[in-house]
Amino acid sequence: MAGLDCQVCGKPAVGEGFVEGARVALCEVCSEYSRGFQVFKTYVPPKPKYSPLQAAGPAVARKPQGELRLVEDYGQKIMQARGKQGLSRKDFAKKLLVQEKEVEGFEQQKFKPGEAMVKKLEFALGISLLEQAD
Ligand SMILES: [Zn+2]
What we know:
Elements: E1 15-19, E2 22-26, H1 28-31, E3 35-39, H2 52-55, E4 68-70, H3 74-84, H4 89-96, H5 100-107, H6 115-125, E5 130-132
Antiparallel strand pairs: 1-2, 1-3, 4-5
Helix pairs in contact: 4-5
């Protein structure tokens, strides 16, 4: 079956019924307004032409999700959040089970915390140190 269109609204018809005395192809919605409606014997519920995901565009054309990078001013963020918690650098280092020098290094951005350390810092300070990469 080539697939008839609903003669009322133009959507794919699923059967035939009588509207104002005329036998017409009708979709599911419009069939409710008809009399003697019968679903096509050959009718098989159509598969959606595309999923919302595919409708958003081909996957290859999109950025990979979840690519995060350290914010530019992570040192300042760490320092400020630590200050808010009233923790000295030493106390904070203890809390994280790292050397004080390491905390100092992060805060002065001498070196970057690794992925696991970022999580630790974020959790301990209740802040976010990552942002979506371009
Ligand atoms: Zn219709």
